[in-house]
Amino acid sequence: MNALTGTGGTARKSPVEIFADAASVVTRSPYAQVTGIKQGKLGRWTDGVAELRVDRTEFAVYWDAHNDRLLTERTRAIEKGDSLDPLWAVLGDSTAQGLGAPMPHGGYVGQTLQRLRRTTGMHWRVLNLSVSGALMRDVLANQIPLLDGQRPDLVTCGAGANDILYSAPGKLFSDLRTLLAAVPEDTVMLDLPLLNGFWGIVGHISVPYISRINRVIREVATERSLRVAEVSKQFIPPWAGKFSVDNFHPSQDGYRDWSRALVQVLSAGPTAAAAGRPTPEDQRRKTKPKPPRHRTYCCPAPVRTAAIVSSFTESEVHPVAL
User: Fold this and answer.
1) Angstrom distance (rounded) from CA 226 to CA 164
2) Confidence band (pLDDT; 50, 70, 90) for 24?
3) How many domains does the chain contain in total?
4) How far apart are CA 236 and CA 30, in angstroms?
């Protein structure tokens, strides 16, 4: 589930990794030690990329084990006839894995989960089907099919950044439209961040292309009545402290902006299937919950999530363990 996908099943390296591998030939040479390159920006950057390469494997193992426990627990609950906690299914790439944060639950998934639990009074669970390095066609082929039989109350999907580096524009937009047509009803899509003012000229010239991608996301999402979490409007300068050691993935502070974007769209969402479920206090009082209006893959009801945005403070950067 969390092995990198690529041609013939081989691991896919990002262009950042490829360039860092090439640069490390210089930064690890005796010349680099003498001249100070090893201790300079280039050396620190190549070390950072290597560090996240290790984290990528460890985070994948973490989410694999987490998903296995979750599915086992839900199967047992169904067999016993127990009520199920509301379920959030996550589709996406390394950002959904939390890569760049100190721990897997330090990404936008863990931070948003904390706020869902706190503000709804319900023990939301997360099934993280994301894969580091995934392209949109990987989400289509390998992640969406895993939703079969799960009936999640919330589905989110954030992918496309890797496609910018790997796919020609025609292929990218074709895959994007296919993905938007394939995700479940009421899925919340995440748009892509605009890197104006970061990565120098590269970040600047990428803005029109990424803006075009985001425009298509919004247009097609509107046609399907899907909601869009606008990361592009929350993950913005000043950039200090918002990127991890590889200067590519967000840091835990950066993921706080991503979480804010998701929280805002959830707080304005439609009535959810999960809204009809009893809170723990309801269960103790044996109060019968009201039935949901719609049977869809939805987010929590506004009455239970509207406080998320107002309760979001800058000091809340320590996500709850899963």
Assistant:
1) 23
2) low
3) 1
4) 39
* Tokens, residue 52: 């996240």
The rounded distance, in Å, linking the Cα atoms of 108 and 254 is 9
- Going by C-beta distance under 8 Å and a sequence separation of 6 or more, which residues neighbour residue 83? 77, 277, 278, 283
Q: How many helices (H) and strands (E) does the chain have?
A: 14, 5
Q: Is residue 22 within 8 Å of residue 15, measured between CB atoms?
A: no
CATH code of the domain containing 234: 3.40.50.1110
Name the helix (H) or strand (E) containing 189.
strand 188-190
* Kind and range of the H or E run holding 107: none
In a domain, 7, yes or no: no
Which candidate, 108, 141, 110, places its Cα nearest to that of 6? Answer: 141
Give the predicted TM-score (pTM) of the model: 0.77
Query: How many Cα atoms within 13 Å fall on the side-chain side of residue 40?
Result: 13
